[in-house]
Each structure stands twice: as structure tokens, then as C-alpha cells.
Specification:
six-stranded parallel sheet, 11 strands, globular
Length: 274
């Protein structure tokens, strides 16, 4: 069955089996209507063998450039540096790619044109945010401004290029410290593992150069906290979410669940939300 599909099943391949990819693989193996896990790509196959053997229907293990050969949807769950190597072969074949490292998409935006030219699709899950459907709807009219304020525990920010380049010590903070204020595009460069949420928000609304972002290192919080304020001609709304970190402190538990929800929509008889 692996690599093959029933006439109406969508084959899904996953690039990366970290905290996000492994949860998506497990959900597919347990059963999502109309979908089957066909293949995975991992840097160290031996490391992931125990997990793969635990699945009821172990998928093929392939190089990332071959995932599009055996899948209708390729899910990118790898470091953003690998985004192009994963997405380009898939969309060239007219397949769909689900992009988790959406911050990396800004530097590879020609992939959208490549997908359009070849009949492929690039799908960005809601991820660690709420309300992207409301932002999408408001963008059909006119959005005047979008601002996001993110507060994270120190463990979730360590190693970010912006912090390293500016030699900022966040290990001994006793009160919240504003690290950054600027556009979503700038935030994605300075905090590539943390600010996929800001880029997703920007793509749903007014773009990465008009979406304003603040980033705080906050010793008073244990969750990744995001607050969004939108002013539009159709509505004024604010949203807040507090995400519990996964095994990877830079990633919220809800991110993997968001991808699973997106995959479920692909073949669901009843689909709720825009």
C-alpha cells in the first residue's frame, strides 16, 4: 500500500520528523479521511527507525527531492534552510506543498510563481495563531493596519540571529524586555524559528512590509503569547492566544495540530471556516 493510493485517496509525504512532523505522521497513520501517509524524508534515517516501525503502515523513506513522485501533498516540517529543496520539486510536478517554515517563503517567493505555472499549490497553515480566516476576509475589503505583539519565555528565543548579532543577554532577565519592533519581513530574518506566525499573518492581510511586529523576551510567561490588532473598513478586532510550547521550545503544540486540521479539510465532507 505504501506509495500507492486508492482511487480517491490523497497521498501525503512529510519532510522532517521533529516535534511537528512526527505528530502529523502519527495522525495520518491513525487515520484521516481520504488521506494516506506515503513517504517521509529525514536527515538521519536510523534515528527515526523506531518511530517509523511503530506506525501501522510504515511509509517509504526517500530523499526530499523524490517526495513529489509518490505524494499529492508534501508537508514541509524542516528547518527553513531546507524549504526550497522540499517545495520546489513538489510544485514543479503540479503537487501541493504545505509550508510550516513560512518565514523562509519570503526569500523564496518565486516558488509561488513556479507553482502557478505548473498547476501546483502552496498552502500555509494557520499555525500558532487564531483568526487568520477573519484577516483573510477583512483583506477582501481594506485593511488599514495590522500589529502583532509576541511575548516568549527565554528558552524559546535563545539562538535567534537578532539576539546573537546584537549580543543581547536574555539569560538573566527579571522583567520583560522588548527585543524588536519593526515589520514582519524584518522579524522573520531576525527570528526565523520564532516568527513564522508573523509572516503567516502578513500573507493573510496587508503583506510583510506593512504588518508591524513587537517581540518581547518575558520571564513572567511560560507560554508563547501572541496578541493581534487589526483595523479594517469591515471590522476592528483583536485576538490573543497563549500557546503551550512543544518538546521544541521554539514551537507551540498547536502548530502540528493546525497542519493536521488543514489536512483533514482536504477530503472532509463537512468543512468549517474559510
Amino acid at each position: 500500500m505504501t506509495g500507492q493510493k486508492a482511487s480517491n485517496e490523497l497521498r501525503v509525504a512529510i519532510a522532517g520528523l521533529g516535534s511537528i512532523g512526527s505528530k502529523i505522521a502519527t495522525a495520518l497513520d491513525q487515520g484521516i479521511e481520504g488521506l494516506v501517509l506515503s513517504a517521509v524524508a529525514v536527515r538521519d534515517a536510523a534515528k527515526h527507525q523506531p518511530f517509523l516501525k511503530s506506525l501501522r503502515h510504515p511509509p517509504l523513506v526517500l530523499p526530499i527531492e523524490q517526495l513529489g513522485d509518490v505524494a499529492d501533498i508534501v508537508v514541509e516540517c524542516a528547518p527553513s534552510s531546507q524549504l526550497r529543496a522540499i517545495v520546489e520539486p513538489a510544485v514543479k510536478r503540479g503537487k501541493a506543498a504545505v509550508v510550516v517554515s513560512v518565514g523562509g517563503l519570503l526569500d523564496n517567493f518565486d516558488l509561488v510563481d513556479l507553482a502557478r505555472a505548473n498547476g501546483g499549490r502552496i498552502m500555509v497553515p494557520t499555525g500558532a495563531l487564531i483568526g487568520l480566516d477573519a484577516v483573510n476576509a477583512a483583506a477582501v475589503g481594506t485593511i488599514h493596519s495590522v500589529k502583532m505583539v509576541t511575548r516568549k519565555p527565554m528558552d524559546g528565543l535563545k539562538g535567534a540571529p537578532f539576539i546573537v548579532q546584537n549580543n543581547i543577554d536574555i539569560d538573566h532577565l527579571r522583567e520583560p524586555l522588548k527585543l524588536f519592533e519593526g515589520t514582519a519581513r524584518e522579524a522573520a530574518k531576525g527570528f526565523p524559528a520564532n516568527l513564522n506566525v508573523a509572516v503567516a499573518l502578513s500573507l493573510a492581510g496587508v503583506g510583510p512590509d506593512r504588518t508591524q511586529v513587537e517581540i518581547w523576551a518575558d520571564p513572567t510567561v511560560t507560554r508563547n503569547v501572541h496578541r493581534i490588532e487589526v483595523e479594517a473598513d469591515s471590522a476592528r478586532f483583536s485576538m490573543a492566544i497563549e500557546n503551550i510550547p512543544s518538546e521544541n521550545p521554539k514551537t507551540g503544540l498547536i502548530t502540528a495540530l493546525s497542519v493536521i486540521a488543514l489536512l483533514r479539510k482536504q477530503r472532509a465532507t463537512l468543512s468549517v471556516g474559510t
